[in-house]
């Protein structure tokens, strides 16, 4: 959970320290208690060496208890 909008990211590493999701870009569409963000990102392919196609995620976060909690998300891509 993030305490600020700027701290929200899609970057994710597995338990072995391998980055599995990398965020390419983030655009904040609305700020406040309910925040909407669009992310451009890629996921690491199963071979563990190449990155997949660029995907986009539209996500909504609600600020509760001083932290932004994910409430809904929708991911789309051209593939």
List keywords for this structure.
79 residues, globular, 57% strand, mainly beta
Polypeptide structure, described:
The protein has 79 residues and is an all-beta fold. The protein has no helices and five strands. A five-stranded antiparallel β-sheet has the order 1-2-3-4-5, with no helix packed on it. A hairpin with a 2-residue loop joins strand 4 and strand 5 (67-77). The mean pLDDT is 95.
Strand order, largest beta sheet: 1-2-3-4-5
Largest sheet: 5 strands, antiparallel
Report the portion of residues in β strands. over 45%
Could you estimate the helical fraction of the residues in percent? under 10%
The shape, in one word, is: globular
Work out the radius of gyration: 13 Å
Write the element-wise H/E pattern from the N-terminal end onward.
EEEEE
Structural class by SSE content: mainly beta
Count of individual helical segments: 0
In short:
The protein is mostly beta strands and 79 residues long. It contains no helices and five strands.
Write the layout of secondary structure elements.
Elements: E1 12-13, E2 19-30, E3 34-43, E4 55-64, E5 67-77
Antiparallel strand pairs: 1-2, 2-3, 3-4, 4-5
């Amino acid at each position: 959970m993030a305490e600020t909008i700027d701290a929200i990211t899609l970057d994710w590493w597995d338990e072995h320290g391998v980055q599995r999701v990398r965020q390419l870009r983030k655009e904040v569409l609305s700020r406040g208690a309910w925040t909407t963000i669009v992310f451009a990102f890629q996921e690491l392919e199963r071979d563990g060496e190449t990155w997949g196609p660029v995907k986009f995620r539209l996500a909504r976060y609600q600020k509760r208890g001083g932290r932004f909690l994910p409430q809904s998300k929708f991911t789309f891509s051209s593939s």
